[in-house]
């Protein structure tokens, strides 16, 4: 517990900034919805008529004129991409950051096994992700209520669960990589988050690349799909779960044998 | 081997093709005040990091406090370690670091930490990034000592400490040693090894080339001869480390002293001193290529 507490204490500022920023963007988007709703008919038809661009962002599937359609797109952009960045950065810096900052020697010369260190760091990353998502969810739901709209609980909850799972998957993949590198690796983390996002964009653009949706967590955390089907794609989730487990296993396997620089 | 605080047997560590230590055999007895001497890159830090489980050996065996080094957690529970360049978490104050270190050990070390901070005149209210190198070192020293370890492993411990603090630091180490704590320190400052350590080992190119009591290491049979007179190096067979400054001549001599007296009797000598070389001179010789002749 000491190590988890220490990790959370060190991460709280970054967590606060990310949570604040993502919540603020989502809440602002929801607060301007009533104004936008008045002009939605023309906006919706314009958005859905932009060909490949509309497909890439799911604008052809969702009706931008409804709260769910609007929220599905905005939530995907803000919480999807923003949350992915946060999770990837938290995961990639968890273990490698100690070596980059020269504190690994301090930490690992205390009576803690490498496994205990990995467990505490992983728990800390996951706790941060849960805190961020719970806060964003509550504030978003509050904002929907504040603008006088009925809260579509099931769809909103499913969307947020999907983004939570996406972040957990990305964080765990980056966490595994973090055990293999000696520097901060922030660039690697960002590249993975952006890369996964663009894989889903490419998959939306052409049916030939649709298989990419199986690989990227943005495949199951896809607002238009979730809202239109009312459920999460279990096949894609299983692949995501497998990648998550691989990331965690890699972290334990590699870090327990790693020569600390 | 029972009763050894540190024992290594053909300990070898290679970083790819680069040598860390090569067949290192070292024994540090329980209760020793042991100096570990070697030039940069000789393998001192590699040895220490292997003993602490930070890196794994390529081959060979090692034990600390009679426990194989694979039992890292049990070893670290009983060891205090001071790295040569102590790095801490930025944003934390000295007292937070000390508390974290104690908590990670599951111990309440408040009283001992306060006593050590008082003796080392450490201000624990400053953030670690605002501390000078010497003061960061003091935080590291308190972290290494506050939990009353049985073995202290100190890597270049006095770097950054002023002479008064160095004196206080060694007083603390001597007190600990008298209470039975084994002290193992690596240092470039040979005078402090000679002054405080009872035993020492010299490491060169990854292997131990000398290991004995400091008294025995100094008693090599070699003498530092300093004289004023006209004499050439060719006149003294076996003279090494020859230096001349006007008519002042100084050299190391490990041959028959009667032969030297016979040679000196043949020249006009104004002054003559015969002294044991200090540890620094001996170790510098060990560092050289013909070190095994020292």
What are the salient characteristics of this protein?
heterodimer, A: 261 residues, mainly alpha, 12 helices, 77% helix, B: 294 residues, alpha/beta, 6-stranded mixed β-sheet, 4-stranded antiparallel β-sheet, 10 helices, elongated
Distance between the termini of chain B: 29 Å
The largest pleated sheet of chain B is described as: 6 strands, mixed
**Estimated radius of gyration of chain B:** 22 Å
Task: Name the beta content range of chain A.
Answer: under 5%
Order of helices and strands of chain A: HHHHHHHHHHHH
- The level of helicity of chain A is over 70%
Average per-residue pLDDT of chain A, rounded, comes to: 88
Given as residue ranges, the uncertain stretches of chain B (5+ residues, pLDDT < 50) are 290-294
End-to-end separation of chain A: 26 Å
Q: Roughly what fraction of the amino acids of chain B lie in strands?
A: 25-35%
Count of runs of 4 or more consecutive helical residues of chain A: 12
Oligomer: heterodimer
Report on the architecture of this protein.
The complex is a heterodimer of chains A (about 260) and B (about 290). Chain A is mainly α. Chain A has twelve helices and no strands. Chain A has helices at about 1-30, 35-40, 40-50, 50-55, 65-100, 105-110, 115-145, 155-180, 185-205, 210-215, 225-230, 235-255. In chain A, helix 5 runs parallel beside helix 8 (about 155-180). The longest helix of chain A has about 35 residues, at about 65-100. Chain A is globular, with a radius of gyration of 20 Å. The mean pLDDT of chain A is about 90. Chain B has about 290 residues and is α/β, with parallel strands linked by helices. Chain B is built from ten helices and 14 strands. Chain B has helices at about 45-50, 70-75, 95-105, 110-120, 135-145, 165-180, 190-195, 215-220, 255-265, 280-285; strands spanning about 5-15, 20-30, 35, 60-65, 65-70, 80, 150-155, 180-185, 200-205, 205-215, 225-230, 240-245, 250-255, 270-275. In chain B, the strands form three sheets. Chain B has a six-stranded mixed β-sheet, sandwiched between helices. In chain B, strands 2-1-4-5 form a four-stranded antiparallel β-sheet. In chain B, a hairpin with a 2-residue loop joins strand 9 and strand 10 (about 205-215). Residues about 290-294 of chain B have low confidence and may be disordered. Chains A and B meet through helix 1 and helix 6 of A and helix 2 and helix 3 of B.
